[in-house]
Write a structure and sequence with these properties.
By secondary structure, this protein is of the alpha/beta class. It contains 6 helices and 8 strands, in the order βββαβαβααβαββα. The strands form 2 sheets. It has a 6-stranded parallel β-sheet with strand order 5-4-1-6-7-8, with helices on both faces. The structure holds magnesium ion. Magnesium ion (MG) binds next to loops.
């Protein structure tokens, strides 16, 4: 049952999934990958607590289905927005607008949407440019670790999936 106002957009690679564990087939599809410690628990807890959760992810639909089905989590999010199907990748606004459309949100809802991701250029800047709250999952050695542009600066920074539920509960109280 959804009873929270806050809406959580989540990245996958190096946010919930450990990208270094990914195994690929000959077509470049991810066949399996490990979740980061606490990631399954965080996703399940956000859902259980009544937050609307939308995965906003760059990659192939089959890859996400493989990985999240294997962990029993594919059907936990309320929606998936996948770049292969959208035809654009984050930080392109089309990815975020597609999520709004899938969830039936309007521009007035932007203040209650938060985007969580490890990539400053894609997730944080993408969210900031849309007027969403941004949370940087600062964990992976991959990608960027300095704010190369003014709109790469996150509203909040966490390093572990276990921090997500407490942060979202705090943000919900602030709405
Ligand atoms: Mg990522």
């Amino acid at each position: 049952m959804t009873n929270k106002r806050l809406i959580v957009f989540l990245d996958s690679g190096d946010t919930l999934v450990d990208e270094s564990s990914q195994e690929f087939d000959e077509r470049g599809i991810v066949t399996r990958a490990e979740l980061r410690p606490g990631a399954a628990e965080a996703l399940l807890a956000l859902h259980r607590e009544g937050f609307t959760v939308c995965m906003v992810v760059d990659g192939e639909a089959e890859s996400f289905r493989n990985v999240y089905t294997a962990h029993g989590l594919y059907d936990v999010p309320d929606a998936w927005v996948i770049s292969e199907l959208v035809g654009k990748q984050k930080p392109d606004k089309t990815m975020f607008l597609t999520a709004f459309e899938k969830l039936g949100l309007t521009p007035e809802d932007r203040s209650r949407v938060v985007m969580v991701g490890n990539n400053l250029k894609k997730d944080v800047a993408g969210a900031n440019r849309m007027g969403l709250k941004s949370v940087w999952m600062d964990w992976s050695p991959r990608y960027f670790h300095t704010y190369e542009e003014a709109d790469w600066v996150p509203d909040y920074t966490v390093s572990s999936p276990s921090e997500l539920l407490p942060l979202m509960l705090t943000l919900e109280e602030k709405l």
